[in-house]
Design a protein that fits this description.
The chain folds into two domains: about 35 residues, no CATH class; about 80 residues, no CATH class. By secondary structure, it is mainly alpha-helical. About 70% of the residues lie in helices and about 0% in strands. The longest helix has 29 residues. It has five helices and no strands. Keywords: Membrane, Transmembrane, Transmembrane helix.
Length: about 120
Amino acid sequence: MGFLLFPLAFTLYFWSRGALPDFVRCVFVVNYTYLKASPAPFFFFDPRYGLSLIWQLIRLENGPLWLLSPAALVFILAKERKPELVLLIFWGFFSFVGVAAGTRFFGHYFIQVIPALSLLSG
């Protein structure tokens, strides 16, 4: 039951300020509408954009991280399975899930992936 403490505190805060309807609208309704307006189930399947455009943008922004991280991933899975390194893999994977959740893959969405990829590349 302790996990309900923070959502309850958030709810009480916005309710006490008369902003609970705005909070609910901005957090749930606006995001749902945004996701519903997505051009395809996953942005990169949309032929108007395609993987080539996305790869071009990613390569220009964080190319070395995207090249070194898969090599580190193979090394970690093949040779060293230290718990902290496996945790880095999960962190990177779930960061990318966060990027993919928006289904639009704008460049600034990838900011949340950079820390995990940086540590993997190191």
